[in-house]
Amino acid sequence: MFDSLFRAFEGSVELGLLYVLMALGVYISFRILDFPDLTVDGSFTTGAAVSAVMLTQGWSPVMATFSGFLAGCAAGAITGILHTKGKINNLLAGILMMIALYSINLRIMGKPNIPLFSQETVFSFFSSDYFLLIVPIVIFLIKLLLDAFLHTEIGLALRATGDNPRMIRSFGVNTDGTIILGISLSNGLVAMSGALVAQYQGFADVQMGVGMIVIGLASVIIGEAIFGHRKVFQATLAVLMGAIIYRLVIALALHFDMNSEDLKLITALIVIGALTIPKVQQSLLKRRKAMERSRMLSSMSAEADGQKGGHTHA
After folding, report:
1. What InterPro entries does the database record attribute to this sequence (predicted)?
2. Per-residue pLDDT reduced to its tens digit, 85-129
3. What gap in Å lies between CA 147 and CA 72, rounded to an integer?
4. Which CATH fold topology does 2-258 show?
5. With CB atoms 3.0 to 4.6 Å apart as the test, which of 5, 43, 195, 241 could cross-link to 47 if both were Cys?
């Protein structure tokens, strides 16, 4: 029993590491830019589709994965352009691009599913025994590069665009450009995650991106709730850990014989819990402080009345 549980947890950690890039992409759009981008469900599959097709045509795994990243960047850039130049609501722009990408992904793949079991992948460069040694280092390096980018002048403009676009425009920053750049980078990371997941699982499927936005949100919210998000380094580290914890929770649920059909429900419940529990805790804390303040005022009032009564009696 413990061996099977350990193997399930090991596989979940491995998969969670590959989903970290997707969660970081969602963090950029939702947290930094305050842009509810549903392109994610489509761009995740785009990265998988592009890399799978290139692998089957004999391209190197590294080039195939990087091409998936570029394809995701292109999809995100179009979403940003639809919103900034086409003046389409950000949520609607993401939905439109997500719908369009379903057909585009089918066109890229030529069929709903591409097996990769006989293809060389990025994971063929090292033994599976070294997965948990090499992949975390690579993912952490990408996280550090993202941290460094967010502290550059362009990165600071990106963060300011999400916080207060009117203020940053007054300093002469083109917020349309920063939004397009941010959404492009976000979907590029999501697509790279899709490319890596497809190579890890051994296939690319046109439906594999369904629900990715919820998984990404769950990773971001869980990480922030547990580890906090005051600084950029802390926030991205929280997202990294949140993606792994999410996969561990799913593995635990499956280990105790929950139906795989219920995974979306479990994910939704995790997100609901992660969103509501901190609010409930804050409400209880405020109520407790109010009661303590009321009790203190009552005690001070009673003490003052007692002193006044003593003076009167004297």
Report:
1. ABC_transp_permease
2. 999 999 999 999 999 999 999 999 999 999 998 899 999 888 887
3. 20
4. ABC transporter involved in vitamin B12 uptake, BtuC (1.10.3470)
5. 195
